[in-house]
Structure formats: C-alpha cells, structure tokens
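Reopening: structure tokens for the manganese (II) ion complex, inputs below.
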Amino acid sequence: MNIVIASDIHGSAEWCRKLVAEIEAEAPDQVILLGDLLYHGPRNPLPDGYAPAEVAGMLNGLAERITAVRGNCDAEVDQMMLDFPCMADYALVADGDRKLFCTHGHVFAPEEPPRLAEGTLFLSGHTHVKVDEVRDGIRFVNPGSVSLPKDGTHSFAVYRDGNIEFRTFAG
Ligand SMILES: [Mn+2]
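Re-run output (same inputs, fresh job):
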C-alpha cells in the first residue's frame, strides 16, 4: 500500500497546491492528514498564500482517499468546510498486519504513546519537525509541516509497504 502522509497545512493554499501536485504524481492509495488543516493558529505567523477556503476545496477533491485527524487548531467550523471527517483524536489505518496509529500529537503524544503492538507505526505532526525513530518496537514518524516547518524544509512523507520516505518540495 502506498500512502501520502502530510500534516500542518495551516490554511496555506500555496503549499497545499504543491502538496496536491505531489499527490497527483504519486497517485497513492490513501492520504493521511495529521491535523491543523485550515486555520493558521494564533501562535503561528500567516503562512504563504493563506486562503483556508481554497485549501478546503483542494482537500475536498481528494476526500475519498483521505483519513484525517483533528489538530489543536482545527475547530467545528473547519469540519463544516470539509467533506471528510477531521474531528477524531486518532485514526487507525491497517496495512495487512501492520497498524498505523494516526494522531496530531497534542492528545496522544509520541513521548507518551498509548500501549500499541510491536511493529505499529505512530504517525503524528504538531511539532512541525520531521522525526523517524524506533522506541520499544514502535516506529515514530512525523512528516514535518507542509507550510510552516520549524526544521527548515517544507515536507511530507510517503509510506510504501512498511517503508517511510521523507519528501521535500522542490523550490
Ligand atoms: Mn500545527
């Protein structure tokens, strides 16, 4: 299974457009969005090309492939704009025997994960910093932020049959 994993778009139509282009090129089976989709959030600067309604339109075009969870900046009104559910604290995606535990990171934090089976992939965003590490048999992956990276590169990740590859946007 081929999955694009992205997080923390924060209403940037400019960076969301680049993400959608990458998704179209990748043609994944699924798209996992780890929260903070439309609203910039009061602690963040306005991202490039801030246009939440445009972002909602672009994401709705992918709705059938999207599994999304709620970020700490996502509100009820954001759900009204989106055709796919985005208000859950976590979602589980299964790839054969492997589970992907998807969450934003503020309710279930990677530092204090729930009890998960060995081999589970714990996917979270929230920090806007890429992570790929294994602890106690659980692989923790953070794809970084599409629009407001705190580690210098706008990024997302691609899961393919158990492997994770980080991608950064060209330009
Ligand atoms: Mn965020």
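The two ends are 28 Å apart (CA to CA). The CA atoms of residues 42 and 89 lie 21 Å apart. Marking as resolved unless the reporter disagrees.
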